Each structure stands twice: as structure tokens, then as C-alpha cells.
Amino acid sequence: MAEAPDVASLIGTVPFFSGLGEKKRRAIAGQGKELSYKAGDSIVDEGSMGVGFYLIMDGKAEVRKGSRVLATLGRGQFFGEMSLIDEQPRSADVVAVSPTKCWALSSWAFDSIVKSNPDIALVMLKEMVKRLRAAQSSFTS
Ligand code: CMP
Predict the structure, then answer these.
(1) How far apart are CA 97 and CA 40, in angstroms?
(2) pTM of this prediction?
(3) How far is it, in rounded angstroms, from Cα 84 to Cα 70?
(4) Quick one: which of 31, 36, 57, 75 could link to 109 by a disulfide (CB 3.0–4.6 Å)?
């Protein structure tokens, strides 16, 4: 894929992939595609079946449940992993709140990359635990 080297260096700058060498990043970069959204565009809809995993390369997106904002995610952060992991509908809406560029992976590419790169699985688990703790503290405060 012609644009793969550019994406490879870009994904190398975000924590999610920073533990991987150049060769691996290049191979992984070719498996995803870049998607652009305008402010206000819906990226993921609560209740729909998930087919993609998203890494934010630029911009900002809000994770929303009804009128409640659960989190604001920016460059280097990911979303869409929950539906791919448990094969259940999307747990929340994710909406671009500024012009946003994502790098997206299909569910099968996500599975195969996570299975063959334990470092990525660990980074993702740590972030998911952080989100769970933040959600717990919002229940008690
Ligand atoms: P998924 O359920 O596939 O689609 C909606 C996504 O929003 C979800 O995966 C997570 O990536 C993200 N998400 C859901 N709840 C939270 C939360 N409390 N904090 C941050 N991100 C969340």
C-alpha cells in the first residue's frame, strides 16, 4: 500500500504502538485505513454492531451515553475495542468534536494484531483499567 510508510511513522508517535519496531509498525500500518470526520460527525453509534477499532491520529472525539459525556479522547487514544472484544453492540456513541482523523482497523485485523503483539494488548488493558477506574469514581462522586 503506497501510503503505508507515512502511516507507519505516524502510528509510531502514539503510545499504543510505540513499543513496536519500524518493520512491525509498517506491516500493521498497511492493515488499517485513514478516515476523516468533521466536527459533529458520528463515528460510532451506541447499539450498532461494531466492525472497527479506531485510533485517533488528530482531533478530538467525545464518548457519549445519552446526554452524558463519559470521556473526551484525543491524539493517540483509541475507541471501539469493546464491541470487537465481546461481540456485543457498541456501548456508547463516539462523536467528533473537532475535525478528526482516525486510523481504523477491521475486526479481523484487530484480532490478529492483538493476538500476535502482546505489548499492544497490555497497553490496551492498562487504558481500559484506567477508564474503568474513572467510571467508578464518577459513580461515587
Ligand atoms: P465500543 O463499545 O465498541 O464503542 C463505544 C466505545 O466508547 C467503546 O467501545 C469504548 O472504546 C469507548 N468507551 C465506552 N465507555 C467509555 C468510558 N467510560 N471511557 C472512555 N471510553 C469509553
Answers:
(1) 6
(2) 0.91
(3) 19
(4) 31
